[in-house]
Write a structure and sequence with these properties.
Layout (H helix, E strand, L loop, with lengths): L3 H11 L4 H8 L3 H8 L7 H11 L3 H4 L9
């Protein structure tokens, strides 16, 4: 099962969104987003919720607890 960082990167690429744009949406730096995608750091709960809301996916899917994207 993909890691959290791999899921973030996969979803971002599927939606054709740049790291810069997603970082702006999340109110973080592109460097911080790269760290998430490379599994160097894990996002806090608020950032995870923002990612799930932005991509309209479930938190369980995002963190790898489910393969079902929707709630």
């Amino acid at each position: 099962m993909p890691t959290l960082g791999e899921r973030i990167k996969q979803i971002r690429k599927e939606e054709n969104i740049s790291q810069q744009k997603l970082a702006n949406v999340l109110k973080i730096t592109p460097r911080q987003l790269r760290r998430y995608e490379n599994n160097e750091f894990e996002p806090n709960l608020e950032t995870l919720k923002s990612l799930a809301d932005y991509f309209n996916i479930s938190l369980d899917y995002l963190v790898g607890r489910s393969n079902n994207r929707k709630n």
